[in-house]
Design a protein that fits this description.
By secondary structure, the chain is an alpha+beta fold. It is 25% helix and 43% strand. The protein has 5 helices and 8 strands. Helix 2 crosses helix 5.
């Protein structure tokens, strides 16, 4: 896990929240996992983008992420990120690290790529696409990953899929609240 669990947050909406999940798909094929979702937030585009762009905030909305931070740009000028999550599949518990770089188009698209040399994944690539929609922000999310760690065959993929779907819960609401707070304080960094 890592930021992917935070992004997997887009999996299930809790009843009564303004934020809502509009679609969700999790698939597994030959050790690789894909997660595609669309969520809507009752918050502005710029502020919602800022919540996802700032890795330091990940621990505020994801209970799985225990440590996260923005890292200085790499030699190509791309902003860096680090996150560490804790998670269990059946009775196998792990601390999962992701570290890599981010590319983005301000307020429109955010892409994160984990570096396998510093991560617990052979690859872990995420894309968020942001659109103004119905007075709020629609976020389309895609995650493609292949963990380096052993996942019990048969039941492991089922449990991971279930955990991904359940991980979202209150996270959607937290993301929305953070974005709304940013709008109230005017605290976005923009470029």
């Amino acid at each position: 896990m890592s930021r992917w669990s935070a992004l997997i947050l887009l999996a299930v909406a809790c009843p009564g929240l303004a934020a809502e999940i509009r679609s969700l798909e999790v698939s597994h094929d030959d050790g690789e996992y894909s997660f595609v979702s669309e969520a809507w937030f009752d918050a502005g585009l710029e502020e919602t983008f800022e919540v996802f762009r700032t890795w330091d905030r990940s621990t505020e909305f994801s209970s799985a992420i225990v440590e996260a931070r923005d890292l200085p740009p790499d030699e190509m000028g791309r902003p860096g990120f680090y996150s560490r999550a804790k998670g269990c599949v059946l009775f196998f518990c792990r601390s999962l690290v992701r570290q890599g770089y981010v590319e983005f188009v301000e307020n429109r698209e955010l892409r994160a790529y984990a570096d396998p040399a510093f991560s617990d994944f052979e690859f872990s690539n995420e894309t968020w696409t942001f659109h103004e929609d119905d007075g709020g922000t629609r976020v389309m999310y895609e995650l493609h990953m292949d963990p380096k760690f052993w996942v019990p065959p048969g039941i492991g993929p089922y449990v991971i899929k279930r955990k991904l779907r359940k991980a979202a819960g209150a996270a959607l609401d937290r993301i929305e609240r953070i974005a709304q707070s940013l709008a109230e304080t005017g605290e976005t960094r923009g470029d």
